[in-house]
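Throughout this chapter, every protein is written as a compact record of paired, labelled lines. An example of such a record is reproduced below:
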Amino acid sequence: MTVTRETVIDKLKTIKGPDFEGDIVSLGLVSEIFIADSKVFFSITVPAARAQELEPLRAAAERAVKGIPGVAGAVVALTAEKKGGGMEAPVKRPAPPPPAVPAQRPAPAAKPAPHAPASHSTGKRGVPGIEAIIAVASGKGGVGKSTTAVNIALGLSALGLKIGLLDADIYGPSVPRLLNIHGRPQTVDGKILIPMENYGLKVMSMGFLVDEETPMIWRGPMVMSALTQMLREVEWGKLDVLVVDMPPGTGDAQLTMAQAVPLAGAVIVSTPQDLALIDARKGLNMFKKVDVPLLGIVENMSYFLAPDTGKRYDIFGHGGAKREAERLGVTFLGEVPLEMGIRESSDAGAPVVVSKPDSAEAKIYRGIAAKVLERLKEESVSASAATPAIVFE
């Protein structure tokens, strides 16, 4: 039985909040409804201050939708809109417009490439067609992780590899803006999501499914479900490397990725100062504990060159990440300067590796990408050597 948007809306019209004057649909609290493979995705807007109090409302809506015949699952999130110091009551917004009928295309006939040995762990199911999956992570936010992930992906692409980019930063997806990609993904036969594309990269992000300015309030199981679906229910095709832009920290998203798939390795991004390095160590230790190889550390915002005089300033200190890499015996992948052009090109959705390929900054990112590829090959050889051969006599 095919699940329709209208059926879902009719069911949601039966859901009322504890002190609302109407149902959540008539109040305009329900986002655009996205249906793929009989799974239903949407969010409910509530006041930020009442998010925890209204969790039963979200749960009730999820139960109601899951009870619709033909629905295989539902992912329902609470979102919060803040205006000024916060809202006293739910904000009424227009009902979502009917979604465009997605174009369909046949699934690729080519047989997916086998998944290459990735981490030293066993019992993890790879993603068909993807040779290696790497995570770009940081111990804290604000260190330029997403910009680094995007430019590493583009750097690997410049080396002639087929690259995908998964924006796993559920709480603050920024890859759509960084790559200037807009719109909603289409599906294959209404089931498998088709990744968006730009600059030669195949891209999937929660930012394609929710509005850019909508903050997401996610609980652990929802994070795990959303990440698993964006990873496994997407037509990635054949890729040499899938780069995963992780959310900052060491929480559910990182553990989900480390436990769900055989990660080929992790890249840690940090700034030079001690406080950032303390958090970077947490990320390093987490990946070590779940047996994910550490491909190396990138020191972002490493130094600043004054555009008028060319004088160098170590605003956040310098060399901290390199010293930490040496101390831990981890590869140091490179230093990225605090440079106006990187920020401007990122904001414009034209990353420096593709918009200014001959610039010093682009060469730095391509150098980091080359080192990442070299480390991937080393880890692949190491993993193969560690696998005992079975000899029949």
User: Anything to note?
Assistant: Confidence is low (pLDDT under 50) at residues 81-122, 387-393. The chain has eleven helices and 16 strands. Residues 167 and 175 are 6 Å apart (CA to CA). The first helix runs from residue 5 to 12.
